[in-house]
Structure to design on (258 residues):
């Protein structure tokens, strides 16, 4: 007699796998493209910071203004704002509630730390800094419309958008399993684009963006490390809402009733 097949219940989460890899060597091996390129960018920025005056990079970037670039970077800078997190949560939660939750955690931690650093350092935004210290340079800049100008005198360092972008997209890159190289490069490109947009739009100096990238990257690594350690017992977080729509195969060795 044929036995009744037992099907995998999508509401029953799989048992967490036992981790045997060593930290951080395995992490570095799996994510070296993202880490190496990000490190090279930080080192390159650091070299420019030590060999040039504050604002030089911003002035050079400002000379590149084109109408098409304006549209691109005005849209691109939103990739580190709440609307981007909503989109990420909707997509990632289809596969893993855990990763969706911790992607928000990474952005929240980066935002809080960047905000606290802004309060501590109290550095002026480029528009204010140029106007107060080099007014003749300020008049020579290609200015944006008034609604895209920031005159704040205390919120430039570090760049919160850049920190948020590197935290969010770094965390997503570290969690990628399929097509990891492609996903990592795309995530890194988005994070870099957000940082560059902050300089292009005259919101931050190169130092602000560099510090934001380092802060966001450290947050992404820390949150990635902690996500399974702090919530491994909650196995229901390992599934996503898309699992409800998948037709799972019967358990191997069992034959369904005809």
């Amino acid at each position: 007699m044929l036995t009744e097949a037992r099907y995998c219940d999508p509401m029953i989460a799989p048992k967490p796998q036992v981790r045997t890899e060593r930290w951080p060597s395995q992490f570095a091996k799996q994510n070296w493209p993202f880490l190496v390129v990000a490190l090279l960018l930080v080192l390159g920025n650091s070299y420019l910071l030590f060999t040039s005056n504050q604002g030089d990079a911003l002035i050079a970037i400002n000379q590149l203004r084109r109408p098409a670039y304006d549209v691109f970077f005005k849209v691109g800078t939103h990739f580190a704002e709440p609307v981007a997190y909503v989109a990420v949560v909707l997509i990632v939660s289809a596969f893993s509630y855990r990763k969706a939750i911790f992607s928000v955690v990474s952005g929240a931690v980066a935002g809080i730390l960047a905000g606290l650093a802004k309060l501590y350092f109290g550095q002026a935004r480029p528009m204010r800094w140029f106007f107060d210290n080099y007014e003749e340079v300020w008049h020579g800049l290609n200015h944006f419309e008034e609604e895209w100008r920031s005159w704040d005198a205390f919120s430039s360092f570090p760049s919160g958008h850049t920190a948020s972008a590197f935290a969010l997209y770094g965390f997503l890159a570290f969690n990628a399993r399929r097509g990891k190289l492609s996903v990592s490069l795309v995530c890194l490109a988005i994070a870099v684009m957000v940082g560059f947009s902050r300089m292009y739009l005259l919101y931050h100096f190169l130092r602000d963006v560099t510090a934001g990238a380092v802060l966001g990257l450290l947050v992404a690594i820390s949150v990635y490390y902690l996500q399974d350690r702090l919530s491994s017992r909650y196995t229901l977080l390992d599934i996503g809402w898309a699992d409800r729509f998948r037709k799972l195969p019967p358990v191997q060795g069992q034959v369904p009733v005809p």
Notes: DSSP finds eleven helices and no strands in the chain.
